[in-house]
TrEMBL record, chains A, B:
Keywords: Magnesium, Metal-binding, Thiamine pyrophosphate, Transferase. Belongs to the transketolase family. GO terms for biological process: pentose-phosphate shunt. GO terms for molecular function: metal ion binding; transketolase activity. PROSITE patterns: TRANSKETOLASE_1, TRANSKETOLASE_2. Binds 1 thiamine pyrophosphate per subunit. During the reaction, the substrate forms a covalent intermediate with the cofactor. This is transketolase.
Length: 721, 721
């Protein structure tokens, strides 16, 4: 290749000058860095409790060995966080490793998910069956229980899936909110059925992400006193020292957001300080707690500690040997001294005893409070009540046509009374998204038993909090709402719902240019397609009241794993701002098949098939009537959900989209990308492949050519092709 | 429809109890709300300066009338923010309405974009030709210069496109960073060519969004002393009083993030206080400034002020009349007293004089510092230097195969010396994204003349800041980088780049399951398709070194409007973690056509066409060779960019994808959604339509069936179909 001549370039006067300035800049940075570095805890020191030290180093070396064997991973965080993790898990975490799903267990979230070996080491040392020593040796390998980042659906004992920074801390807010809700809703003076803590470990990266600020603000507002976050302050990020991009006062920021804040200055050795801080955090019941714990990343590694080299790469043989030396660790690869196991065994015993005691409370509660218990059981087991859907209404063409966002509110209010786990709200758009459950009040600091959540304008945290709620108990059906366009603010949590099998319902209103005057910044165009391509996410766009009921029916079923795959699936429910008529041929049952015939079913061999979704379904029907007036035989297919249709038998699919009929047109106010699949080579797709504009909705449909006439014309072309 | 029996439901004991709790909850909320409401400034009061009062009320009534006429929009914010806007625009903003693009103008960003009538009213009163009284009457209508939310590409005087909350304040950070950079890079002791302020108005919604926390943290870290944000503290959000979801101490949070913070308690009347605060903010040169201005939303409306009813709906005739009464406004609809115009005329004159004075500095600078001026001119006019691309290297199969992320770094370093506007960096992944320009240092508080930006782990703000930089001066080519998967954290700013014609380069590495061990939380699957469907966004995935050079060439050209549409287009450049060989048949020129033949061009009538992109291109070539060994004639097409290919002539497209050849296979390590378009009814697509897993990359390709054998088998099926 042609060699680059950077030297020549740098030699130009202007650049030479810059180079000098750069050197000065670097120097001044270095000075600041050192200034901060002096605040770092000592790289060596003594832990008096020798068994504690053994247990802490066991975490470190299991992590080092796992990463080395995989030749991939992040040893730095586990080595630095081993002391705080030891104290937390040995003296505070109340879990029963032999019953990992015990409803009242404490929850632990490793928000800094890249340090996954820390989580796996802890689960192994605690005696979880899910992580044997052999599993640790399979870290990051195909089929392993120990993947690169913690995945709740693979490894018992892992509560949520983390890795994308900031998601975990927001999930933890959801877990703590779920606990506060269930405790307030079900506990009795004589029976404390729900009473556990949520602990999280987060890093600098989590605190730089905006989602953590959103989640922290809500946690402070809600006063989640049983949420305790340990902030691993190691001052190192991938680009180097945090001085280069992160110099805010994190503790002061959390205080401003209503948190109780403490700082443990020597997180490498001060076990008593860690114990005292966590105890004080538990004692603070009105505010969530942040404990800033200053540590050294890669503690024990003589040449890599406190550098970003230890963040995301194996230590390697030589440095591992040097680390064994420095930490006086005579044990072999993956070898754990029995004293280390014994330390955590005490905690496991404590947890098992607590579980046993709770079972008695549980039995007494079940006997004494059968009505409340029925709801509690549904939420904690995921069994839907027999009558959960009985209030879903049916519509005929006689019923007033409405926007599907209004039908959506009807469905939420029809489901809420019989669906104990339904809880949710909007990102400050409740009056537009129509998401209030009218028979309930607001979930607030002084009314956590209520079921309407007020997320504020925090879409990103909203999605992640709903994931936390969903993964707290299998019977929760959390929903959250915003304008469809703002799914762009919460796309990662929506993906995490799909990946981690969290059955969240995403209520997305104002679903097209049909919203009109707000203009292109608010008009989704590519969004329907963008969720149809997301694995394990159901994307639904109903065309009237019955289809809205059907979409909710399917969404709730899938949130409870009632589908061919037998896993929880989230749904993106897409609703219109504008109204549309109710049809006589739509139904809940048919909607759940994903696509079906709503018009012209009598034609065994129609001349063409028109496919519509949502607010454009009526357009397809009107086009059909126009074509029929010209003597054509036309079938109209409503396709509220591609994914559900794809799961039907080939026979059914062929009975809806007759293979021999090549005259096909799709009409949908979104990008046409992907519709080739359904309309075929000779088919046409009416849609919008550019940004919208600010004007009244009906006019926009005309201007962008999404009209009955356009569908008719396209049908003629397709039939002639 | 079946009536809902909420009453019956509510009558159940458990729910009755809840209802009571809810009432208590509401009451306690109300109490808190009132407690805060007392802190609100008076709803009535006197402004001694009568001309000022006229100008302020002119803003209010133009906004009221515009929203009423459109019967759509948000009058509340303009009515509350009129006083601060008047003070800012009359006494501080230095702009020349007759030269809206003057390079050294102050920038104004209405981050709370829904209050757009405020922005339009100000532009009109200041005398911008872009907003005549007739334009105000066309608010929110088709073809209007006054769309629902401010759009920079439609209305001269509007700097950035806002509406999605929080974007604007992050854009403002980008604008201020651009000013700091240009000033440090070009100013001379005897010639201050760059010296302006960036002002923004933000609301509660902006402050609830995480992106604003990310942007504020960076602005504080960078010490952007010429960024001044007015926070409209009106305590009302769409769901009601901010008490229900937003109770953090915003001022304390900004202080923690390194800002200079002030509070003007009566933003409705205290013009002197507003003047003093903005003056003090200008005097503070080392830190960005937040001025919390307490106002009444909908000030002057006797029945709707201080309620969310006035936020997003027209006042209507009756309430407008009552407001005219309360504010003693005798003028008719869209009628502006000459005294009001006169107030702003003073500011326009001041700006014109400043512009004139600057032109002299400009001329002197041009004469005295020709070398620096050449770079300055390129950045401020958008004219690329003649030699901008001359250092882009060429590769042959002799050159070592590399990951395209490494080629990407080569291109950035080849372009940087000759592309004055190239500036950018990564969200704390520089060593993985390979985005450092080696001849430059870090843009930091004490070295803003440098061109490597350290965004920290703040993807959302990063994108919006780059939009601000791009829209500051037409010759900036900002780039920003992260793992492709984390585009999910910045999807809205990426869309805003496309919508607002900001030519940002998004450098997205680790583009498939090929990244391996990090697992499904880090493996993009649906992402390529998700950007191909985004209007005005180019999505590029090169297959070797030459194609990487070609993609950068096309991306820079498009960032400078060099395309058939003649508008700036951003690019999403997608690069691999893993290596791939260089090919002799690839080239910059061919890459810029979007798709072309890299193998088997000699066959006029091949038996089949294999289409590959990125790291799978070599797989297509290997499959072709295997098929050829079995006597088949095979063409391989590389398709690095769908959008560019779609813009080629039908003749060219048919010459690449021969219409008569129906045996076609696409291979790409992403969802197959959309590929039907290129492979047709008889074609096959090899890809991955589920989430990946944690394991070594090569093994994942096998496990998910993305292999040479799979391509060969699919080709045989397709040819037989």
């Amino acid at each position: 290749m042609v060699a680059l001549t950077l030297q020549t370039v740098a030699a130009r006067p202007a650049l030479a000058q810059r180079k000098q300035q750069r050197v000065q800049a670097r120097r001044s940075l270095l000075v600041r860095a050192q200034a901060t570095a002096t605040a770092a805890p000592p790289a060596k020191g003594e832990i008096k409790d020798k068994n504690a030290e053994l247990a802490i180093n066991a975490i470190r070396f299991l992590s080092i060995d796992g990463v080395n064997k995989a030749n991939s991973g992040h040893p730095g965080l586990p080595m630095g966080c081993a002391p705080m993790s030891y104290v937390l898990w040995k003296d505070f975490m109340t879990v029963d490793p032999k019953a990992p799903k015990w409803a009242n267990r404490d929850r632990f979230v490793l928000s800094a998910g890249h340090g996954s070996m820390l989580n796996y080491s802890l689960l192994h040392l605690m005696g979880y069956n899910s992580v044997q020593i052999e599993d640790l040796k399979q870290f990051r390998q195909w089929g392993s229980k120990c993947p690169g980042h913690p995945e709740n659906f693979l490894t018992e004992g892992v509560e949520v899936t983390t890795g994308p920074l900031g998601q975990g801390i927001a999930n933890a807010v959801g877990l703590a909110a779920a606990e506060a809700h269930l405790a307030a809703r079900f506990n009795k003076p004589d029976a404390k059925l729900v009473d556990h803590y949520t602990y999280a470990i987060m890093g600098d990266g989590c605190n730089m992400e905006g989602i953590s600020a959103e989640a922290a603000s809500l946690a402070g507002h809600w006063g989640l006193g049983k949420l305790i976050c340990l902030y691993d302050d190691n001052r190192i990020s991938i680009d180097g020292h945090t001085e280069i991009s992160f110099t805010e006062d994190v503790c002061a920021r959390y205080e401003a957001q209503g948190w109780h804040v403490q700082h443990v200055k020597d997180g490498n050795h001060d076990l008593e300080g860690l114990r005292a801080a966590i105890a004080a955090a538990k004692a603070e019941t009105g505010r969530p707690s942040l404990i800033k714990v200053s540590t050294l990343i890669g503690y024990g590694s003589p040449n890599k500690a406190d550098t970003h080299d230890v963040h995301g790469a194996p230590l390697g043989a030589a440095e591992t040997a040097a680390t064994r030396e420095q930490l006086n660790w005579p044990y072999g690869e993956f070898e754990v001294p029995k004293e280390a196991y014994a330390e955590f065994a005490k905690s496991a015993e404590r947890g098992a005893a607590a579980h046993k005691a709770w079972e008695e409370v549980h039995a007494a509660y079940k006997a004494k409070y059968p009505e409340e218990y029925a709801e509690y059981e549904s939420i904690t087991t995921g069994k839907l009540p027999a009558n959960w859907a009985e209030k879903l209404p049916k519509f005929t063409s006689e019923d007033k046509g409405l926007a599907t966002r209004l039908h959506s509110q009807t469905m939420l209010n029809a489901l809420a009374p019989n669906l104990p786990g339904l809880i949710g709200g909007s990102a400050d758009l409740a009056p537009s998204n129509m998401t209030l459950m009218k028979m309930f009040g607001d979930f607030q600091k002084d009314s956590p038993e209520e079921r309407n959540l007020r997320f504020g304008v925090r879409e990103h945290a909203m999605g992640a909090i709903c994931n936390g709620i969903a993964l707290h108990s299998p019977g929760f059906v959390p929903y959250c709402a915003t304008f469809f366009i703002f799914s762009d603010y919460m796309r990662n949590p929506m993906r995490m719902s799909a990946l981690s099998e969290a059955g969240v319902l995403y209520v997305m209103t104002h679903d097209s240019i049909g919203l009109g005057e707000d203009g292109p910044t608010h008009q989704p165009v590519e969004h329907l397609a963008s969720f149809r391509i997301m694995p394990n996410m159901l994307t639904m766009r109903p065309g009237d009241g019955n289809e809205t009921a059907g979409c909710y029916y399917a969404a709730v079923q899938n949130s409870m794993s009632q589908n061919p795959k037998g896993i929880k699936r989230p749904s993106t429910l897409v609703f219109s701002r504008q109204g549309m008529p109710n049809m006589d041929t739509t139904s809940i049952e048919a909607t759940m098949k994903g696509a079906y015939t709503v018009h012209g079913a009598e034609h065994a061999k129609p001349d063409c098939i028109l496919i519509g979704t949502g607010s454009e379904l009526v357009m397809a029907v009107d086009a059909a009537k126009k074509l029929e007036s010209e003597g054509k035989k036309v079938r109209v297919v409503s396709m509220p959900c591609w994914e559900l249709f794809e799961e039907q038998s080939q026979e059914y699919k062929d009975s809806v989209l007759l293979p021999e009929v090549t005259g096909r047109v799709s009409v949908e106010a979104g990008v046409t990308f992907g519709w080739e699949k359904w309309v075929g080579q000779k088919g046409k797709s009416i849609g919008i492949n550019e940004f919208g504009a600010s004007a009244p909705g009906p006019l926009l449909y005309e201007k962008y050519g999404i009209t009955v006439d356009a569908v008719v014309e396209a049908a003629k072309q397709s039939m002639a092709a």
